[in-house]
Amino acid sequence: MSANSAKLVVMLEMQNAMNTKVHEQWFSQGFEWYRAIWVECAEMLDHYGWKWWKKQTPDTEQVILELVDIFHFGLSLRIDGETAYEALAAQLENELAQPLYAEDFKATLEVLAASAVGDKTFNAAAFAGCMQQIGMTLDDLYRGYVGKNTLNFFRQDHGYKDGSYIKQWHGKEDNEHLVEVVKSLDTEHPDFAKLVYQGLQARYPG
Asked: What is the number of other CB atoms lying within 10 angstroms of the CB of residue 61?
């Protein structure tokens, strides 16, 4: 298994675990992951900028965060409870290695959104095209995905549902702490996700 494929397996496992935490029988719920994808695409376009009647500068960091969120939904669409993660990862790796482009980022994003609306699918090739046009690597995706997924788990484990979770620690939001923790770690480490969780735990005041 390639290094990229191994990272995709980790992300698929983490996605299933998070979905199961939200609803134990998530497979049978018919959640509209495809809708979440096109709605995120529209939100992302606002961060990128599309209005020709005013000056807009792309907020690249926010666009990358939105792409990470879309990948959560894309993975959820691909997991079917039958196909092995290794097979799904190989398929995704192959599609991501053949990016599909339109003339610019906005148009490629519309291809991704159109597949979600029209076919209710996750167009991984168009997603890869968006990644390349915004300057994002698979390592960036992995780092961002594992970090966000781990933070979501951390929030759930520390009272997010009942309102007892503290979002601001030592003058910074949890997202900012997450960025610092992730930057200090080796993404190639097999226990990367566990180390991210431990890093958050060490900083959390609760």
From this structure: 10
> Confidence band (pLDDT; 50, 70, 90) for 29?
confident
- Whether residue 206 is predicted with pLDDT greater than 90 in this model: the reply is no
Alpha-carbon distance 206 to 190, whole Å? 28
Report the Cα 83 to chain-centroid distance in Å. 21
Token code pair at residue 47 = 């961060």
Of 64, 83, 60, 52, give the one whose Cα is nearest residue 140: 64
Residue-wise pLDDT tens digits, 59-84: 888 888 899 999 999 999 999 888 99
Candidates 3.40.50.620, 1.10.4010.10, 3.40.50.720, 3.20.80.10; correct CATH number of 3-136? 1.10.4010.10
Does pLDDT of 104 surpass 80? yes
Q: Report the 10 Å Cβ neighbour count for 168.
A: 11
Where does residue 90 rank: exposed (0-12), middle (13-18), buried (19+ CB within 10 A)?
middle
The pLDDT of residue 1: 78
Q: How far, in Å, CA of 124 to CA of 101, rounded?
A: 12
